[in-house]
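WARN  no MSA supplied for this record, continuing single-sequence
INFO  ligand: farnesyl diphosphate
INFO  echoing inputs
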Amino acid sequence: MSPSSGGQAGATGPPAPTPEALAFRESLRGVFPDHVAIIMDGNGRWAQERGWVRVRGHKEGTESVREITTIAAELGCKSLTLYAFSRENWKRPDFEVSTLMRLLRLYLRRELRTLMDNGIRLVAIGRLSDLPEYAQRALRETMEKTAGNTGMVLRLALSYGGRTEVADALRAFSEEVAAGRRRPDEVNEETLREYLYDPGTGDPDLIIRTAGEMRLSNFLLWQASYAEFYVTEDCWPDFRRPQFEAALRAFAARKRKFGALPADADEPAGLEGLEDVLEGAPEHSEGGS
Ligand code: FPP
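INFO  complex generated
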């Protein structure tokens, strides 16, 4: 653990990288995501495959949360966003919802030490006022205690929906307009971004989804525009260091172009006749006679 960087009493910085972490990053030739976001799916299936109740999968899932959070911090990720509870998840049976909320409180109590030891700052995004008061209180306390940490930001998406986030941002902007602090013609991608739940954290570079589904499920809709997507068949409780490293290796092998071309892209051969096509020369025009 590196020494306090000042600010909040007891605040900590990122952990010193271990030789293994340095070697792993070296093996990726410096291609490493600053921000990883994860759709933690398959807890229920993991438990049911073993003949257990679904919530046992959620409990085991908290172990993966601890392991992946610690490894991400150790490897030097700047931000990790975990989809812990969607707005749609409120439709689940009361018992499952209340177990998830109590697991959240348990996690926050038990893992404060891990967060402090690794210099991690906790942030929650979503409609947090939907959560039971005891969960809101536990979140507030953990956010306050970790606020001065200068290492990785761990964002828990709770009662989160991407469409709701954009709608909430638009409402907040409209209220500023009504109050005379903003003008409607100021709406653009950058100003709207200021009204998202946590505008200070950059877009995810890599979105991982466990348990095989090929969906975004209303996760970070605005921010996911240029994220690389990685799906694994492993259920979240089985997603540990080897699976995380495999995802990071897959990311390192991707070519990200953000809609552009590399500066050294070759002029393609075989352009003969293209000008004629573009100008609508008769031999290429449609229809004929
Ligand atoms: C999806 O699995 C997972 C969730 C709805 C909740 C994720 C929660 C945790 C990992 C534990 C609590 C988290 C924290 C941060 C303490 P699913 O139940 O939809 O799986 P299924 O598709 O197999 O049914």
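The first strand starts at residue 35 and ends at 39.
INFO  checksum written, moving to next record
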